[in-house]
Design a protein that fits this description.
- With 302 residues, the chain is an alpha/beta fold.
- It has a single domain, classed as UDP-N-acetylmuramoyl-L-alanine:D-glutamate ligase.
- The chain is built from 11 helices and 13 strands.
- The chain has helices spanning 41-51, 66-77, 120-124, 128-131, 143-152, 171-176, 184-191, 199-206, 247-260, 265-279, 292-301; strands spanning 5-8, 12-18, 35-39, 56-63, 80-88, 94-100, 106-111, 134-137, 156-159, 179-180, 213-217, 223-227, 230-234.
- The longest helix is centred in the last third of the chain and has 15 residues, at 265-279.
- The model has no long low-confidence stretch (mean pLDDT 96).
- Bound molecules: alpha-D-ribofuranose.
- The site of alpha-D-ribofuranose has 16 residues, from β2, α1, β7 and α9.
């Protein structure tokens, strides 16, 4: 049976240290104990969608090392179909070095490892991509592989251009995307200007893209949905975050899950803002991804 959502994306082992303040260039700081946590934007979005009660498959690559086995088991334990999780011999599994500071903000350095070996041929070898209702893409795998997946997809294509690609994004990719989900920085990089300062400028920048709908995530300020020449701001609940890692990932998964349920984009974004906010109330990428019940509970208890 086809799955609801296929995620084509990265799997990383997150090496996380909590610090009081993220160090400046040239500075060394002491932090807490090192934690090893399953992460990667692709895997996070797949696990998040599964916790939101959707059937999910991932298409990705891990290395033939201990981290790869750990990430594979974690995906299986979270009911993500791994039939198209390929293993690369002699290549390390992706790793993310994460520092989380007191107010929940972070910095992340990713060493892509096996994620960089996911090819267009791999996605061509994965029939679930053409059968899924929603295909969810990010930017931690090669851009040509993202494009190949968007070309194969017959359902709704969501692209979360995170981290903001350094290379020029092929215009045909933006043409194939139904829902683009950048944050402000990613929007500026895609648009090639630095002025996402207010709602009007955000809408103006978004309208230069060929995709039919865009949702810009604004962190503690919520999100803006821009579709059919209309922009709607969705505010976020007033919370004190513990760790913002993976909040964008659970936001994207909640949009995908809502579209599978037939919700419109505004309703989808209202739910996604709650899911993203609830994610920031628990530490660590995948440990923080909530079920629908946990979303309500965490926001009630805050
Ligand atoms: O979005 C959060 C994720 O970004 C982390 O889990 C890390 O692996 C990086 O990919």
């Amino acid at each position: 049976m086809p799955v609801d959502i296929v995620v084509v994306g990265s799997c990383n082992l997150d090496l996380v240290v909590n610090v009081e303040h993220i160090p400046q260039v040239g500075q060394t700081v002491l932090g807490g104990d090192l934690q090893r946590i399953p992460g990667g934007k692709g895997a996070n979005q797949a696990v998040a969608a599964a916790r939101l009660e959707k059937s999910v498959a991932i298409v990705g690559r891990i290395g033939d090392d201990e981290s790869g086995s750990l990430l594979q088991k974690n995906l299986e334990d979270n009911d993500v179909n791994i039939d198209y999780l390929f293993s690369s011999t002699g290549v390390p599994t992706g790793v993310a070095l994460i520092a989380v500071q007191g107010d929940g903000d972070n910095t992340i350095v990713v060493s892509p490892g096996a994620n960089s070996k996911l090819t267009p041929e791999d996605v061509i070898a994965a029939p679930p991509i053409a059968e899924a209702q929603v295909v969810l893409l990010q930017a931690e795998i090669p851009i040509e592989t993202v494009l190949a997946a968007a070309e194969i997809a017959k359902g709704i294509v969501i692209w979360n251009p995170a981290p903001a690609p350094n290379e020029i994004v092929p215009l045909e990719l933006l043409d194939l995307v139904d829902v683009l989900i950048p944050n402000k920085k990613e929007l500026e990089l895609l648009a090639g200007t630095k002025n996402a300062t207010n709602l009007d400028s955000i809408v103006e920048m978004v309208q230069t893209f060929p995709c039919s709908s865009t949702i810009v995530t604004l962190g503690e300020q919520g999100a803006v949905v821009v579709a059919s020449n209309e922009a709607v701001h969705i505010p976020a609940p007033d919370i004190t975050p513990v760790d913002t890692t993976a909040a964008g990932d659970s936001f994207c998964a909640a949009i995908a899950a809502s579209l599978v349920e037939g919700k419109d984009l505004i309703k989808a974004a209202q739910w996604a803002v709650q899911v993203g906010s609830a994610t920031t109330l628990v530490a660590g990428a995948q440990p923080s991804l909530p079920t629908p019940k946990e979303v309500h509970q965490r926001l009630k208890d805050r």
